[in-house]
Amino acid sequence: MINSENISSAAGISETNNTVDIRDREFRLFSELMYERIGVYLSPAKKDLVRGRLLKRLRHYHLASFKDYFDLATCKDNPQEMQILVDLLTTNETYFFREEKHFDFVRDTLIPALDAGKSLRIWSAASSTGEEAYTLAMLLADQLGFARQWTILGTDVNSQVLECARRAHYPMESAQKIPKSYLQRYCLKGVGDYAGKLTMDDSLRKRVQFKPLNLNGPWGGLGQFDLIFLRNVMIYFDVPTKRRLLERMYQALKPGGYFFIGHSESLHAVNDQFKLVQPSVYRREC
Ligand SMILES: C[S@@+](CC[C@H](N)C(=O)[O-])C[C@H]1O[C@@H](n2cnc3c(N)ncnc32)[C@H](O)[C@@H]1O
Questions:
Q1: Cα 90 to averaged position of ligand 1 atoms, centre (Å)
Q2: C-beta of residue 173 within 8 angstroms of C-beta of residue 102
Q3: Catalytic residue ranges
Q4: Which of 41, 89, 157, 237 to mutate for ligand 1's pocket (most ligand atoms within 8 Å of CB)?
């Protein structure tokens, strides 16, 4: 439960060189709020990061303290500011072909074993700006072509990254991670206003959809998937949150479906339903 009663918005604020300090009690308010809303645990070590990311909102509103900004963002009439707060406090690093072994596994093990004509439904469950979903799209276009039925759903709780994912304009440097033959067939070089950008061909974009979804909130009728990528997001969750999420993930996977987590993540002592196939790749039994 968030208790903001004891924090005075005036006391203890030191304003030096036009910057505002965040007090421990103020940091805790944001930390508890993020945990309640989206399950992200911000440890005290993240205090400077929170301060740095939110300072521009204090300036935007000419506020004197982080408590004032907390009150403004949590005001019932202001859901837009709450979304901006969530957007600012999530970490969205991603890139094409990140943790390449997963895509090698899809190409070399999974696709050759697919029944002819079987459709594929894939979920990139913390998609960030979309590179994971488009990496999969390039791979499937290459391996299965467009006559086969395959679709990819990307979801995230951050509205800004979803906008980027839908726009699919990436800096040209991101091309370095994409194999040349894929670049030639599935990527377009921006011209004019889009010079220096890279975008995805329409043939891929038609197969990839992005939607807002809080992994720790209601999911609506998402249905089941053949493959789920839940990579590099569980690192922000504590053990009870991971447990609850993994039980739901198991249900969202079709029997025989595959589940991918980040290489630095583990299901050890958190879930024993999934069967380990290789490090960071799991399966729901048929
Ligand atoms: C580090 S990125 C990982 C992106 C991609 N999966 C990868 O491995 O490259 C983590 C993403 O998880 C999202 N995220 C954090 N908490 C979330 C939640 N409760 N529900 C949905 N997405 C969340 C963040 O907004 C961020 O875009």
A1: 7
A2: no
A3: 53, 156
A4: 157
pLDDT attached to residue 18: 59
**Tell me: the pLDDT tens digits for 189-243?**
999 999 999 999 999 999 999 999 999 999 999 999 999 999 999 999 999 999 9
Pairing of strands 253-261, 225-230: parallel
* Ligand 1 contact via 98 beta carbon (within 6 Å): yes
Mean pLDDT of all residues belonging to the chain: 93
In this structure, which residue's CA is closest to atom 27 in ligand 1?
A: 128
| Rounded Cα–Cα distance for residues 166 and 182 (Å) | 20
Tell me the average pLDDT across 44-58: 97
pLDDT in tens, 130-149: 999 999 999 999 999 999 99
Enter the tokens of residue 252. 């969202």
Q: How many whole angstroms from 130 Cα to the centroid of ligand 1?
A: 11
Residue pair 156/193 in contact by the 8 Å Cβ criterion? no
d(C-alpha 261, C-alpha 249), whole Å: 11
Pairing state of beta strands 197-200 and 187-189? antiparallel
